[in-house]
């Protein structure tokens, strides 16, 4: 089965890709083993795409924007993959269908692959699943990966730490809301896109200028790329070409100066540490030899006879001792 998927993915077979991502998303041990074999085989073929994160508040137009940019790119003969990171989809269940229907036009393009949010799974697994899905779509030859994530909570930062360039979509707002500008957004975003210029022309202008002003005050720690502020209408597909031009500039400058490579190396290290942390933790939790120790410590904790910090230290001591013998 793995050999078959491997071959088909290299031929860019979309059905095989979907199947492989389903394996990645599965929580069954059997599937996990299969998917890690597959990732191992395909890993060296990955890494060649441009990874773009698209974030922003609910309803700002992320899916519409991704569809417009995706169509723009497929028309230029680029192969585009769309992934969605939605930690809330477990509860709502609605966004999966929503994303799919909203990207109807893109989904029928031969050069597009769209994978809506997985329905649930472990929350901490979002990062792993996304990274592994990226490996698969890259091995399948997709040149641009667009990752949609809603701009609330941890998923935003997680995605920002997985991509080459991070776009944040903003709602147009009328004046005096400058205090509402979050410093964090500016620090995390490479491009700020104020959307819906078709409907809110003046507000969009105002918001663009507010953010430009804010940018001149708030200095980014990492000076590699000056954050750009632009406007567009994802719905009417205006401004999309300009945004693509900025992305291209970012890419060529980043390659020239070496910060894309640097960023990726850091991201790989983070992936390694995340993985180690997860495996180590699972290993300790599922360690049968330690069960009686765990139980003793639990009782002590309940009686306030030991602090959680002390207890965790003891577990680690037992674990290390156990692994020596
Ligand atoms: N007028 C106007 N409406 C837009 C534009 N872009 C998106 N919309 C509308 O805004 C609504 C939300 O768009 P989506 O693309 O689903 O927004 P989203 O950010 O992906 O939403 P979530 O995934 O639910 O967070 C839809 O009704 C869109 O038609 C735009 O450029 N102009
Ligand atoms: Mg959406």
What tags apply to this protein structure?
325 residues, Rossmann fold, seven-stranded parallel sheet, binds guanosine-5'-triphosphate, binds magnesium ion
Structure explained in plain terms:
With 325 residues, the protein is an alpha/beta fold. It folds into two domains: 46-257, 3-Layer(aba) Sandwich (Rossmann fold), CATH 3.40.50; 287-324. Helices cover 57% and strands 11% of the residues. It has 15 helices and seven strands. It has helices spanning 2-10, 14-25, 29-42, 62-75, 89-92, 94-102, 104-107, 125-139, 154-160, 183-188, 201-217, 240-257, 259-285, 291-302, 308-324; strands spanning 50-55, 80-85, 112-115, 144-149, 165-170, 191-194, 228-231. The chain has a seven-stranded parallel β-sheet, with helices on both faces. Strand 6, helix 11 (201-217) and strand 7 form a beta-alpha-beta unit. Mean pLDDT is 87; it is low at 89-100. Guanosine-5'-triphosphate (GTP) is lined by residues 56, 58-64, 95, 102, 150, 195-196, 198-199, 233-235. Magnesium ion (MG) binds at residues 62-63, 99, 148.
């Amino acid at each position: 089965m793995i050999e078959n998927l491997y071959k088909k993915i290299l031929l860019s077979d979309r059905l095989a890709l979907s199947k492989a991502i389903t394996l990645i998303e599965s929580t069954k041990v059997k599937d996990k083993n299969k998917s890690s074999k597959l990732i191992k085989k395909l890993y060296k073929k990955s890494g060649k795409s441009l990874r773009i994160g698209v974030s922003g508040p609910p309803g700002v137009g992320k899916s519409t924007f991704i569809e417009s940019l995706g169509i723009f790119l497929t028309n230029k003969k680029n192969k585009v993959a769309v992934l969605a990171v939605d930690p809330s989809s477990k509860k709502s269940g609605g966004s999966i269908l929503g994303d799919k229907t909203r990207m109807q036009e893109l989904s029928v393009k031969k050069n597009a692959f769209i994978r809506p949010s997985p329905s649930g799974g472990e929350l901490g697994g979002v990062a792993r699943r996304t990274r592994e899905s990226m490996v698969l779509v890259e091995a399948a030859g997709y040149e641009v990966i667009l990752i949609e994530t809603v701009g609330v909570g941890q998923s935003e930062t997680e995605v920002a730490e997985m991509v080459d360039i991070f776009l944040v979509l903003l709602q147009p707002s009328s004046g005096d809301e400058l205090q509402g500008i979050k410093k964090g957004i500016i620090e995390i975003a490479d491009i700020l896109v104020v959307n819906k210029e078709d409907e809110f022309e003046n507000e969009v202008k105002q918001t663009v200028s507010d953010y430009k002003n804010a940018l001149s005050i708030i200095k980014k720690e990492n000076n590699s790329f000056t954050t750009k502020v632009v406007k567009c209408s994802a719905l009417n597909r205006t401004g999309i070409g300009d945004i693509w031009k900025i992305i291209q500039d970012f890419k060529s400058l980043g390659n020239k100066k070496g910060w894309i490579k640097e960023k990726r190396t850091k991201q790989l290290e983070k992936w390694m540490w995340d993985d180690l942390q997860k495996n180590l933790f699972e290993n300790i939790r599922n360690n049968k030899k330690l069960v009686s120790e765990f139980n003793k410590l639990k009782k002590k904790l309940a009686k306030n006879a030991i602090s959680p910090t002390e207890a965790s230290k003891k577990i680690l001591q037992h674990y290390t001792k156990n692994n020596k013998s």
